[in-house]
Fold this protein.
Amino acid sequence: MGARGACHPRHQHPRLPHLRGDPVRRTSLLLAVLALTACGSEAAGDAASPSPSGDPGTVAGIEQTQNDLRIDVDRGDGTPPESWTLVCAGFVEGSHPQAQAACDHLAGMTEPFAPLADDLMCTEQYGGAQTARITGRWAGEPVELELSRTDGCRISQWDAFGPVLPIPVGVTDPLG
């Protein structure tokens, strides 16, 4: 038998001399190619994330902010659902009708998008057919929250959002 480490001529490719010889060299080359491939696909993945609930990155050259939300509301009264955007990032923008008040309110809340605990005991009361869905990012973290008014806990959760969500149908505005 030949010396250990020498390749059999049948396993040597004449057009790929860089793959002959030392296994450490081949492994290093393979790792370098894999690393470059991973970097290329990561950059492509960031650029292709168009939704507010996607990973942070860029969309058409615009960097997604840390506090970028989409709010979808169905008032439950037969009117078409409404959708608003809200960006609170040192500046306020979006289609939300009370964008500044909504951003100020959210900034004052502790963990505004935390889900209700599974074992929470709630009063059995019905606050209406309204539903809302908030998606996007807040404080750099992904947000996906479904809201309704189907029991006392969910009514309180809805009301805690103040100017972020519309006043429910049949409820008068406590502020005027």
